[in-house]
What we know:
Layout: E1 2-7, E2 10-13, E3 18-26, E4 33-39, E5 46-52, E6 57-59, E7 67-72, E8 77-82, E9 91-99, E10 102-105, E11 109-114
Parallel strand pairs: 2-11
Antiparallel strand pairs: 1-3, 3-8, 4-5, 4-9, 5-6, 7-8, 9-10, 9-11
Amino acid sequence: QVRLVESGGGLVQAGGSLRLSCAASGNIFSENRMGWYRQAPGKQRELVAHISYGGSTNYADSVKGRFTISRDNAKNTVSLQMNSLKPEDTAVYYCHAIFGVRDYWGQGTPVTVSS
């Protein structure tokens, strides 16, 4: 089993920045990828960004140019730097990881962007 723990969420003004972090522990495989999803009130969970073990990244169109995902393989962590935040970014952000043939979810960290 793998445990994912997110941190860094909170309240921020529009145009501001936040940095989310996720730490993975347990049965970690070096292969595969980690990333972030979010779920806004009344909406389905959606992919924000993900990054492979080797550093290849992918972003949702809505966050391209504003968010940056990174990882530290030695520490088994993944981060999401969020800049130029908009009220539309308000959601609970979930860390997600694929290790081996299984995937895992964190419990989520809320992000609220005020106008």
